[in-house]
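INTERNAL AUDIT FORM
Audit reference: QA-55
Scope: verify that the stored structure record matches its stored sequence.
Auditor: D.O.
Record contents follow.
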Amino acid sequence: MVKAILTDIEGTTSSLAFVSETLFPYARARLPAYVAENGGDLAQLLAWMDADAKITELKAIQGDIWSHGYAAGELRGHVYPDAAAALRRWHAKSLTLAVFSSGSVAAQKQIFRHSDQGDLTPLFSGWFDTTTGPKREAMSYVLIADSLGISPASTLFLSDIVAETDAAKAAGMKALVIDREQGRGDIASFADIEL
């Protein structure tokens, strides 16, 4: 029986285009000013951005830049309506909801707090990023389950990346691949999930 749902963000609850066409360009344009004010190696940060590297330091800086954008009303988080509806439904059924994304915890909270579906942060009990471990390693999912106090076997992980769902399964979790565009995943939307 599923007691907890752990979800990815990019490509799962939120569109890939929102991240690649809105968030990344927003952070890139403001990175030089951020580095001038806070220090850091601009060339290295830009190289990591170009490579879409999942570097914790980069994700924290991007999250800080985005936080200012959300606060200023320049950014609004995208969440698919079917994802928001399912998250609300599951929360009402007292399921534990958590996020595991390569984006920093601060950035995760901003997307859901300032989403086009309203403030969804009260629905979540846990937030996890790469400080927990890589998303493609089973041990990360074991640590998340331990942190939530729920067995991996009672946890369902949702992602658009097969290597991530494979890692979750290796940790003992149930996992589904969401493929909203190609139709090659286990499901095409949150509305397809039967618990």
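Auditor finding: record pair retrieved intact. The chain has seven helices and five strands.
Action required: none
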